[in-house]
Amino acid sequence: MKKLLLSLMLLAGSSARLLAQDHLLWMQQPALSPDGKWIAFEYKGNIFKVASAGGTATPLTINSAYNGYPIWSHDSKTLAFASDRYGNFDVYTMPADGGTATRLTYSSDKDIPYDFSADNQKVYFGTDRHDIYTSVRFPGNAYFNKLYVVPVKGGRCFMVNSAGTEYVHFNKAGDKFIYQDRKGYEDPWRKHHTSAVTRDIWVYDMPKKTYTKLSTYVGEDREPVWGEGDAFYYLSERNGNQNLYRASLSDVNAITQLTTFAKDPVRNLSRSDNGTLAFTQCGELYTMKDGQQPQKVNIGLSADFNGDQVQNMPVRGDATEIAVSPNGKEVAFIYRGEIFVTSAEGNLTKRITNTPYQERMIQFSPDGRSLLYSVENAQSWDIYKTSIANRNEPYFFAATTLNTEPVVATNKDEFQGMYSPDGKKVAYLEERNVVKVIDLATKKAVTVIPEGINYSYADGDQYFTWSPDSHYLLAQSSEGAYSRSEVALMKADGNGQRINLTESGFNDRHPQWGMNGKMMYWMSDKEGMKNLARGAQTDIYAMFFDQAAWDRFQLSKEDLDIRKQEEKRDSMSRSATLTTPANAKTPAGVPAYAFQPNLKNLDNRTVRITLGAASIADNVMSKDGEKMYYLAKYDKGYDLWVVMPRTHEMKVLANLNAPGGGLELSNDGKALFVLAGSNIMKVNTDDGKITPVHINSTMDLDAAGERAYIFEHTWKQVPKKFFDPNLQGTDWNYYHTTYAKFLPHINNNYDFQVLLSEFLGELNGSHTGGRYSPVFPNADETGALGLLYDQTKGGNGLVVEDVITGGPFDVARTKMKKGYVIDKIDGVAITDDFDWAKLLNHKADKYTLISFHDPKTGTPYQENVKPVRPRFESSVLMYNRWTHLMEKMVDSLSHGEIGYVHVQSMNDPSFRVTFDKVLGRNYDKKALIVDTRFNGGGWLHDELTTFLGGKLYFQLRPQGHKTIGGESLNKWDKPSCVLMSEGNYSDAFMFPYAYKELGLGKLIGMPVAGTGTAVWWENQIDRTIVFGIPMVSSWGMGETHATENHQLEPDIKVQNNYNQVLNGEDQQLEAAVKEMLQQVKGQ
């Protein structure tokens, strides 16, 4: 408890000290005014302005939305910025001295301003909208920012460039713009990696329509701005830490380093017309002139601008775990890392813990008067208990006084405590992999599963449970292997050997005791349908440790009735024989009940309980073993099922259609408590009646405290989980100290996500960084018509350039065609002085009247269609359009001889598509192109290489007829190649690596960064925040290093030219066709 109180004091102290500070830190996105007098920047979610020499900053925006990314007009009179006021980032303008903001863009895409036009009448911005309609590049809107422009007075937005440009700045003549590219997925705040995916600096010549690469370093080169003449400034890691450099178009190799910070990168570069440069470094804002030393800009505020006060908020649901009291009258649950207890049948809820830390893994004590839980305070996870202090108060939800004390609290991580049924011991995890048991009276702990047996991937993936007599434990065990799961039995006193009960090549998990310890039941994928990538459907099995119990379980309903009658007749004599006399004493040292499990011939006492495999979330058996309740998904969502093993009947007890959940059975067996998604309900076991468990409470949300905890949690978690125990040489404690001091200067999750990513980015690992997914219940959403338009031209109407297959207009009755012009949407005309995206806001799935005409004949049409959601259009319709284009191109280029398939992800659905297309429409092709470009990963490398590595070892000839192919029937046994790009990631690195190692064919395209690690993305107590830790590395056979950070080179290197790929020519695909035709030449 002392550790907990001390940590709370430290947090409170840091917040208190902030109020007395007048020096701002963690300013983001600074922008120097062209006249050099002012700097605009984002701080705590709003835009401020300060004199370039420093001083007191003036807020220009004051609202609860995030306002950032300011840029200046060239006359220094107007600011453009981005704000998420309507659920996505739109472009706004406002006077440079403050005033009313004017919204310019209305699409629900992300729009970020970059520059003003030379006459200050337009704002250029980057957006993640669709590619130009002629493009044959992968439709990765998130990868490739499109450059658009919008008038400052508002109106229609126009596409300027579709190449994929970030941090765009135009030269003074307005005929060129400089930018950084993006080639694929990687956290933008990752540091020190060198690979083909890192950013480069380019310049685009608008009259000549040419792209010229300006940077040559293999690592990060980014954030370019123009200097005098053809000079430009940019940030680079070419000499280690990211610093400021200068070069020129006339001599890109004459590079001058201008800053020499040894640690902590330079970010957010800006430049004024008088040559002053501004940037941030280690949370500070600097200015400098070329050739001079950087000067720190000291900035203060005239008033408190915290914007992050403690807020009282209702608690109505969204539970992440539950525990039911032994009497079934209370339900404890976790909400946002805090413990609450609510009455099972009333409307009373009480908050049990009140800290910015995370509490989890809750359990009631056997007497129901204590709650056992895990808490991460101070330096480690510990196990605590909170008890009702007043003996006259029976319930937590009505208790007036609670006592809290540690149960297991050392400098090691201990969590997932579980009381023994007799309440005398607690089993728990130490350092995630070791299972221990502590005697609560003596405080002595014994190890029951030592280090080296289990390997935890994600917290909560280890499982163990007590026998009813408190003498044994059942546990999920990897038995020293990775990705293996068995059920093991062990004595709770640490003596004896651990016994593998299942000894199966299939996955066995979640064992539970049944029928008073005479049997166990568990889940196995032994007979379930297998996922083509990873995972499978499961069944529930039972194994009996008692022959008599097994014999009784095997009886039919009729035979059991006969047996019960016999037992009734013999009950008097049996009672006389078995009942212990009242005055009898148990010999010293011998427990009154010491069940000895019969471990012989277990295979002969094992039975499948469920009648069909499914995706099973949780299960529990009735006390008498007559019913098995389980949450299963056979179709769309999880429902509550019950199966009667004796009669082999199964039925749905309650229709829930839940995304998942957990089950607990009341001690009297009359009710099931279900956590369905995030809702708690009580279900009668006899009739399936559902009664919601009401939650009615409030909590004071200390968002700053939460962020401080998440940061500390990240710092502590990484050394325990990161794939390299040495953290790749990172001075982790230094960076903890460095970044911790910025926390008081952050009041929103956008800036906090950047801080997390910067912190984790110091590790130079893939699969890491923070992620923030804000929730806006009423956010703008631009309905999508399934059409591609000419976004480069103005005038009345909107020219349709393609009708996307599968979209709203892909129906038999439509008159819509390519080249037609949309005139009105719901009766409102489309003109240049109006952003037509407004007309489709919130129109998804709603009938919308589209008026259009044939420009050749003038014939008008009107059609009512239902727009689809924009994400569906981007991720499904546009992707399908692209794959069809690729298939047609390969077929045309190869004259029908070469097959093509794109593997979208390394998962089951993608493999099914691959299998279907390869052995379907491409079965008779001579060779195959396997395109993995921009595949973000998963886990499919072994299955895919096996599939493509088929060898024809004999033919099958019905009645002597020669057929196509032969054994192996379900594999590709002809030549193939793999297309890859800088956008491959994770398992999309491991697959081409394995493909090359196995000698299956050539790799064609661009190098792939070494990202072959497995990650745990952990949800935080603020569910909008997650962060990733790459935990498992892959090593090539015979290699002395992991594949991480070791780039995979193609056999044939081909880089797509911007102009060609945007105009319908895929050079990488052409090279693959050429190579495959060469290989099958003469066949």
Please give a quick description of this structure.
The protein is of the alpha+beta class and about 1100 residues long. It is built from 13 helices and 69 strands. Strands 57, 58, 59, 60, 61 and 62 form a six-stranded antiparallel beta sheet that branches. Strands 1-2-3-4-25 form a five-stranded mixed beta sheet, with no helix packed on it. Strands 63-64-65-66-69 form a five-stranded parallel beta sheet, sandwiched between helices.
Describe this structure as you would to a colleague.
- This protein has 1083 residues and is of the alpha+beta class.
- Among the domains are: 24-301, Tricorn protease N-terminal domain (Neuraminidase); 315-409, N-terminal domain of TfIIb (Single Sheet), CATH 2.20.25; 787-868, Pdz3 Domain, CATH 2.30.42; 894-1010 and 1047-1079, 2-enoyl-CoA Hydratase, Chain A, domain 1.
- It has 13 helices and 69 strands.
- α10 (941-948) links the parallel β64 (927-931) and β65 (976-980).
- α5 packs antiparallel against α6 (732-740) and α10 (941-948) runs parallel beside α11.
- The longest helix has 24 residues, at 870-893.
- It is globular, with a radius of gyration of 33 Å.
- The model is unreliable at 1-21 and 578-592 (pLDDT under 50).
- Degrades oligopeptides.
